[in-house]
Specification:
The complex is a heterodimer of chains A (about 250) and B (about 500). Chain A has an eight-stranded mixed β-sheet with strand order 3-2-4-5-1-6-7-8, with helices on both faces. Chain A is built from five helices and eight strands; from the N terminus they run ααβαββαβαββββ. Chain A has a domain of about 140 residues: P-loop containing nucleotide triphosphate hydrolases (Rossmann fold). In chain A, a hairpin with an 8-residue loop joins β7 and β8. With about 250 residues, chain A is of the alpha/beta class. Chain A is globular. Chain B has about 500 residues and is α+β, with helices and mostly antiparallel strands. Chain B is built from 13 helices and 22 strands. In chain B, α1 crosses α3, α9 packs antiparallel against α10 and α11 runs antiparallel to α12. The longest helix of chain B has 22 residues. The radius of gyration of chain B is 34 Å and the shape is elongated. Classes of the chains: A alpha/beta (about 250), B alpha+beta (about 500). At the A-B interface, α3, β3, α4, β6 and β7 of A face α13, β15, β17 and β22 of B.
Amino acid sequence: MSLPARRLPKDPRALEELLRDGQVRRAPALLPRGPRPIPTGLAALDAALGGGLARGQLHEIVGPPSAGGTALVRAALASATRSGENCALIDPGDCFDPAPCGIDLDRLLWVRPHDPVQALRAAEIALEARFALVALDLGDVSVLPLPRQPRGVVQVVRFEKKPPSPGASPWARLARRAEKHSGVLLLLARAAQAGTFASTTIELERGRAQWEGHKGTAGRFLRGAEAVGGVTRHKRMSPSGPLPVHLPLEPK
Amino acid sequence: MKIACLWVPELSLVSALRAEPRLCAEPLAVVQAGRDLGGRAHVLGATGAAIGVEPGQSLAEARAICPRLLTREASPERERAAAQAAREAACAVSPRVEEAAPGLVHLDASGLESLIGDDRAVARAVVAAAERVGVRAAVGLAGSKSVARLAARAAAADLTLEATSSGVGGGAFRVVSMEEQRDFLASLPLYALELPDELHEALRRFGLHTLGEVAALPPGPLAARLGTEAALLSRLARGEDASALTARQEPERFDEGEELEWDASSVEPLLFVWKGLLDRLAQRLSARGLMARELVLQLRVADGSWDERALDLAAPTREVAALLQLLRLSVESRPPPAGVRAVRLSAVTTREVLEQMPLFGARGASPTQLAAAVARLSALVGPERVGQPSQPDRWAPFAVECGKFAPGPPPRVPIAGPVEVSLAARALRPPRTAEVRCDDAGTPFLVIGEGALGGRVVASAGPWRTVAEWWTESPLALDAYDLELAGGLLIRVARELATGTWRIEAVYD
């Protein structure tokens, strides 16, 4: 069924009125474009994400060590800082290496919380302060609660001070903060943490390491590594297939 | 030339009410006494609700007149802060300011009409500036310093006492134009001038009671009979004041202090006091468009000595909650040696950075918002754990420094060049000690480390020897290896040459 075409008024004021009421809408191509997403540095991954890391959303990178998760976080930080945007790196593991990697360090705020709960609160503060990209590096820690003990297991209870708790739903809170302040929250973890509150989930798997030179000789060195990545969850697009990720290593 | 005079009458009372504005409507007297509020204590000032209580009365008399009388001891710390606040209020209106005495400030009001308005608007602006920092002031505006001061004294009769969000309000002003100056001076009684007692008595015996009567006499014979002070009085009575305003560029100090009536030996009561001090400090800084880049906390302990500590803030701020948390962290990490009897907070200031927000495109954080966020993060995790990372000029592997985060304005053109994804090192700080077994050729083949940091070595490269920093107390001498463990984990290990111990320094990711 097709609706009859409506003759639009020529008076610009009447047209504006119709646009305001929602009776007439602009074609999507003519809509003012939203802020540019932050590229990850990998063209294939950016294409699978719809242009990069969309603003106002929580993105999650999941993968084991040596699969390139830290490399992706740094590339996103480099993209954002080089375009003049301020970024924050929440690093409870105190593992950031400031060796030259393309990040404009003048625009990077490095926060080293003592525990994951502080890290979540620090990320919230950074998002409220309108940092363009807040990278939360939980590569060495986890905020997931301990698994519940099965029935029948005797547990020794000590009367000690309770460890700080991350609260009822930290990821929902952080996702709301990211949306409200139009910031990108990029979470790096070894296992999925944010669940359905993550707008996109990028999973990485280890590949082969690349060595140069003969075994046992002095000139042998690590050239880099191969990994396999993919967007396994995206709220607006279909998951991507496996994407090869080449990770060269600059010799130290 | 136009001079305005900002005067804070009853400075001790105003400073006490500035700390506790809710007492404005209560019968309150500020008394001067030592530690014992005995019968020798006397009243310095009282609120309007303390009916019949006058300055100069002893405390016993005052209590007999007003049984519900509340008392507060005069605090030099509070008075000093209130006088500073009055000076800042004057500086907020005019750049040329002279502080004649605590709570008495002259300011050059010439040329302000184009910025603020006519004389009445300027005087009103000075009153409002004083109220913004919590001080009730009487303001006079005239053609000379002496007449402006007399006008301020005349305005003091119209003062009221009102509690405001920042302290005490109810200021008043009096403008004396050149045309009405003669009439204004002529009507002033001599007792309003604070003359020496002998001169006042002599003038009274001559039958002189107002300045107009003094002005009518010839100055030469008056000076011959009553001395040089009478000559000065005669010139003042005719409005002949040639004294220039001497604006001194005094160092800006933002202090707030409080003396406690008891010895505070824990953090909680101090937090209560600090909150009030920081609120007032933040209002003063906000009125001047300044932010604190350093906070100095001074605590006078029971033996009379001062415990001083400086808090170098990670970023300039005037956010009270963050500053309060930093003060708490400082005192909890290093408690004072004894109970605290007085507290003084001083802010070292810097100019608030304002930045033009983009007309098109996403709105980022303003410098003030950024500074507040950095201060909040510092309060959360500690100031030494927040900042801008940088690579120090050292040989130690994966060394890092944390400096102040102070990003400049964004560049007009983004930094050129594509961003490359490269394998990054996750430094282990401190490095994890591990047991590494090597074959006969010295090549590692097994790593036994904590958790997942261990396994059979499937590929390796190295060693790369580093011998450096031998000129320091912690020399560096190690052999580094890159290892691939079974399962694909890539790590950087090093063996210390001096001890032979192995450590895992980083994981490639």
